[in-house]
Amino acid sequence: xxxxxxxxxxxxxxxxxxxxxxxxxxxxxxxxxxxxxxxxxxxxxxxxxxxxxxxxxxxxxxxxxxxxxxxxxxxxxxxxxxxxxxxxxxxxxxxxxxxxxxxxxxxxxxxxxxxxxxxxxxxxxxxxxxxxxxxxxxxxxxxxxxxxxxxxxxxxxxxxxxxxxxxxxxxxxxxxxxxxxxxxxxxxxxxxxxxxxxxxxxxxxxxxxxxxxxxxxxxxxxxxxxxxxxxxxxxxxxxxxxxxxxxxxxxxxxxxxxxxxxxxxxxxxxxxxxxxxxxxxxxxxxxxxxxxxxxxxxxxxxxxxxxxxxxxxxxxxxxxxxxxxxxxxxxxxxxxxxxxxxxxxxxxxxxxxxxxxxxxxxxxxxxxxxxxxxxxxxxxxxxxxxxxxxxxxxxxxxxxxxxxxxxxx
Length: 409
Prior knowledge:
The protein is of the alpha+beta class. It is 42% helix and 12% strand. The protein has eleven helices and eight strands.
């Protein structure tokens, strides 16, 4: 990408403009409920993001020719600081803006950036990520979805699972096996796919909390242009690792900056309403969560500082992600202790409805989404602390000779 352009406004002027916009537009979401597939919330997020783009506040660090402002990273930090003071208006765009857009910007060709980035940055199109498979979860490198080059097209066949918002996405980034003759990490390539192609079948996964924003994706002779390959041939594992780092930063740091303690604030409010703020055990538990959230924010600031310096997110992003999972685990039992039976059973007149039960059920995903806690600990131990790696018995074995996933013959 081109280097940052000279801003047309000072940092103070930009901050004032951002603050004025957020005060007017970031007033909280309003959309039709119930919303089991998150479609209504996504439309509200898209509408807000398009206002951000119209105001000249979207894609702050991306070049102007690709739909951004071309400003230095310090302006992006200002935007994050200001958005941290307002309601979250783009939660369902985390994958698009936190993972797919950075990958397109960093690894895409100029033609790919010109075609896809402006609409993605402005929220006119939504993107999803397709890595996991029924036989390739934590061990994503065991994936079996295949891509075969035939003339000027790639033909993709296979299955993905746990694809968030795949049913409402316009495009997706997928990794597929392009060479089974080499080791499992070496023969993978990354591609862009059109989610509205008839060769892409999307089936909802029904969750215990009533939601259906995860999906199974089936590719049956999906044909994509040859130039929709993202990055180099058979370099998909390095690309996937980079994207996972972006994902863990997005999950672990969010879209804003600064010290953020939303869970403890939420639980403190519940404790006040329940008259339990004088209970010593409750107060201690609340303080532990507040401390953990503060620590997570400080780790996130360090990660964002590295990105501001131009570094691709590294393994340190797993620290923030692991902190988030720990906070979710700590808070779910406390939430139910605070609200009592209302967290498990409620009537139609209860304005809170089942929010505590739903929040508790959803919290379990924090220990899995973006890589399990065990995976994060392995990454931190190996790549942050420099501890010895686990034994790898299939390092130099061709993928076609492995008995992994559903590959038995």
